[in-house]
């Protein structure tokens, strides 16, 4: 009765298993049906590994005796998709037969003829062919964007002859949600009448087109919906935000701040009036004034929301000309912002965080952007568009395919990276129709829409920003400057509601989520008797409980992550103060109870929030960029004295001692066991007598800082005594030692340590198992040596375990031997 979620990779295996089942059980043709129904449709939402499902299917078929002989043909409609699929298909470890024109002497054999030859040939080929192309364009401009000039498999008279009647042919059609009813597909079915046809798509099948889609491919083999993909973490949620022009067209006007989709309740007549006023016509959208205003707003939105975490952006323009003008607009916007940042008063730049929050929104934006001034200076932008005959010369710099390929690879690199050769300042790509399908760049987090975009193209486009890319990328963003939202409901009504659930979520919906996650953190403390974060010591004290501290860490992480998504929207401001306090409490609890966990406070969340809380924590004397202070640090006493209450001072010292003992226990087990017993005795003796407990713990801290001081005559306390005690325990001597036993142990310890001082400093000793094995064998022989009574130093049965223990003591003390 339970519902068990399937992880993404197992979802793919399930699809493969079902496809294999259909291949094995299907019949050539079913009477009365036009098409073979052995195939089906695999829908795995964009970003969830659709091409990997194809690879798994091919590899599984090659391992199955029944299916191994199949010829497999992978159908794509665009060169970029074929290149992407081809790169993934290399994982099949098969030779890829990519159909291209062939040179024969002075004659070039067209792709269509080459493909016909390939399809006629029997054998288990893996063939990649361009059999369709995107024909959604209505003018030359759009045709160029959609892939004009690509080879299409078609014969001179528009039909294909019968080429191969084999039943052992599998055709995998990519992007099966579109162009599947054209004559190209009819040609394919006529040429391969008995093939098995499986359609793969990353987009839900439009309900209005469900019948023809299912007629060709069959029923669904597997569906992996948008919501399932997000819940599994294989893709990210996409948050929608609408922005529009406030003034008329002249001069470009200003741009509103974030707002709800204000057009949803308007009549068609009112919408037309709004369109006229706000300039949603193509010629207005191409105007330099309008593009200049939008470029400035987009760029500042990018700097405030996306740049801090190191991600990149795409802009979808209304035309190729508009894409070119957006490049100019971004260049101007960058120069303007750099000039403003350079002109900022240094006193304003270095305002304390609490003072900065009192300033206006524009000042806060500039001060936070100033931290990235060097990066902003270097940012680059590039239109990615195709060329056409009689192009405007202004488009020429952006239509060279080879240069565009280089720009695309540059864009895919991180914006920020410690290694200069692994990052690239090309931060914004501007497109018209290119790169909206099959383009996989996890570094892209936001898409700015400035043209009409609907149904399948809309779902394809927005999925460019749903790829995962580390913990700081919590969501993808779609920022609408055109008014796509007014068409959104109509566009998505064409789909099954279950299929598109979660496709786009309003950024405004994050506000209640932020409020809820903030309340969950507050409730955690309230349930433990604390209703205010002002008494941070009381908050830290209840986090002593490991379970509660772990729960707090998870809830705080969720709260801060959502806050980072919402910032810098003004709705986030009421939560900033508590975010700072809670992060400070987290830092203090970490320094007191989790000293071995050297994570940065807020590392899991974005830079926007981390900068806020780091500034706040540093102002309170904790540097989140360095590990917690050690008991042996010269500043430890001052660190303890900075605590306001004796109880807090005692707690700091208690947990510093526990960490110190735990960290060094293996170096000298006997010494640190005694130190631990002393600590527990002091805590029991003084209980809640905080002043007396503080003084007793101060004395124990000083003792622990000095380390072992007592020693047997002739032995160094730090270097020899850990081995002396380890050999004594293994030798099974009673207490007290006789003079003969002690003299023997001293002699053996000196000999053992002398040997270690020769062996341990050898290069790569602790990374070379053979060197460690040789040392262990020597120790076993050493422990087997005879003492003055004629018996072994350590009994035979215990020699192996004793040697292992001595190796571990040596490892823990390797810093004393100059070993790495």
Structure commentary:
The longest helix has 23 residues, at 320-342. By secondary structure, the protein is α/β, with parallel strands linked by helices.
How would you summarize this macromolecular structure in one to three sentences?
This protein is α/β, with parallel strands linked by helices and 820 residues long. The protein has 33 helices and 16 strands.
- Terminal CA distance: 56 Å
Largest sheet: 7 strands, parallel
**What percentage of amino acids are in beta strands?**
5-15%
Dominant shape:
globular
Helix content: 40-55%
Widest sheet: strand order?
3-6-2-7-8-1-9
**How does the helix and strand content classify structurally?**
alpha/beta
What integer value in Å does the Rg equal? Answer: 35 Å
Poorly predicted regions are 1-7, 27-37, 132-156, 245-264, 618-626
Mean pLDDT: 77
Q: How many beta-strand elements? A: 16
- The total count of helices amounts to 33
For this entry, give a set of tags:
820 residues; 33 helices; seven-stranded parallel sheet; alpha/beta; single chain; 16 strands
Topology:
Elements: H1 8-25, E1 40-44, H2 50-62, E2 71-76, H3 79-89, E3 97-98, E4 102-104, E5 107-109, H4 111-120, E6 126-130, H5 140-146, E7 169-173, H6 183-191, E8 196-201, H7 210-217, E9 220-224, H8 226-232, E10 238-242, H9 268-278, H10 282-285, H11 288-305, E11 312-316, H12 320-342, H13 346-349, H14 353-356, H15 361-370, H16 373-378, E12 380-384, H17 401-411, E13 426-431, E14 444-449, H18 455-462, E15 476-480, H19 485-492, H20 497-500, E16 505-506, H21 510-526, H22 536-542, H23 546-566, H24 573-593, H25 607-619, H26 636-641, H27 646-664, H28 669-686, H29 690-706, H30 721-731, H31 739-759, H32 769-783, H33 799-812
Helix pairs in contact: 1-2, 11-12, 21-23, 22-24, 23-24, 24-25, 27-28, 27-29, 28-29, 30-31, 30-33, 32-33
